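Protocol step 4 of 5: obtain the predicted structure for the target chain.
Materials: sequence only (see below). No template structures provided, no constraints applied. The aim of this step is simply to have a reference model before the mutagenesis design in step 5. Sequence pasted as it appears in the construct record:
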Amino acid sequence: MYEHKSVLLNESIEGLAIKKSGIYVDATTGGGGHSYQILKRLDYAGHLYCFDQDEAAIEASKEHLQTLSLNNFTLIHSNFRFLKEKLEECNVKKVDGIIFDLGVSSFQLDEGSRGFSYNHDALLDMRMDQTQSLTAKEVINSYKEEDIANIIYKYGEEKYSRNIARNIVKERTKKEILTTHELVEIIKKSIPTKSKITGGHPAKRTFQALRIYVNDELGILSKTLEVAIKLLNSGGRVCVITFHSLEDRIVKEVFKKYTTEESRNRFMPIDLKKKDIQYNLITRKPIIPSTQEIENNNRAHSAKLRIIQKI
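Step 4 output (structure tokens):
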């Protein structure tokens, strides 16, 4: 079993307001850190459904969860985009809580062969679901320069995206770009020295962008959040932990859509009917990790937790 530190663990578990006999979903099970704490709080009538698109994560979490010696959890090897369909296959129509712990898992980062990390030399892969066809290698070696630049800028917010894309295309005419460290060297050459000194690891934003694009993370997140919110029983909650501004912006906007009245157009009649609000925003501002947690787990430094509840 690999070592895994779940971010904002206590805050998210408390945020779920778990009922002993409730039905819960961990949409991003990973190593099972959040799932384990949810299961500890359920009795024989409660049940937890654990989703992960990564087979290795499913196996790791299974080993971890079985130590509780309970038979009230179901592991589902699937991307959470199929949340509703997979739950219906289990005859589940409504749930009492869903947690999303977004981004790449510790397992995927620590296993260098998966190609997620710029700190490990490995084949360019970055697929969370190993059965899908699109890889980072294909994007880097076959996409047009303009498309690569747009991906890096849109999903990585990298201001030197055009330099990086130009140098990628230049280098791949000499030989195919196959590994993470080959890509890292190209990125380093594309960024001014001053920015490399002050902006953290020069490859961070490009690797983030490729991972998000290859796995369609933002598109899936936006659609699935709407599905998750509608699956809640009265009093049920959705907790979402994000790790960068693009994810957090989506969560904030979707939650706002369900917890505020529709904007009133100044040209419309004053008695415009108000939208029926069925949800309550538990977190007006996102919950962030404590200084101590950030010191103990560097991956927690950018994490934010938002919570919504069905009234």
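Step 4 remarks: The first helix runs from residue 9 to 16. The first strand starts at residue 23 and ends at 26.
Proceed to step 5.
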